[in-house]
Design brief:
It is a single chain. By secondary structure, this protein is of the alpha+beta class. It has three helices and 13 strands. β10 and β11 form a beta hairpin. The N and C termini lie far apart (about 40 Å). The N terminus is likely disordered.
Amino acid sequence: MTPRTADRPQMSVEEFEQIARAAPETVRMEFINGRLRVKSVPDGDHGAIIMWLLKQCMQQRPELALYPDQGLKVEGYRKGRARPDGSLVPEDHFVGEGEWADPEGVLMTVEVTSHDWDTDQRDRRDKRDAYAAADIPVYLLIDRDECTVTVHADPEGGKYRSLTSRPYGAVLEIPDPVGITLETEKLKDYTH
């Protein structure tokens, strides 16, 4: 492997994909900002939050599907590979796609923070910027450390221009093209 410098990633995308294919199922890998990242395996509260959100999406937008852990090619950000906790797309959008799908047509990506040492850099910065660079219209961050739900929207020039953050318990409007309303009181049940 080539050492990483400010202008050179740790490895090529092809090298990353080879490593990711060989990894055991208990390890989730991503390649963001030219760096190999290992995601924590989700705990029960993390999974419950994803299921809560999945139900909200299905009730309000039944023509859409929230796919957990579908890998995305976030090419605009140093030929990265991200595995969002959820990707909201039209139903059957990922049919025929491989492990790493094109982000075209993804309406929203979702991350639920994990209680690990690099969640600040990974979920609050690197992935936000990668999704904006890939022109994904909405990035929803459910932050278990801060007990907040944050909507990043309106990507332009690799950055989200709109940011709305509310504490657990508040009502949060997710803008078009998602167009759903989240009543987040239930998230308080998943804070431990």
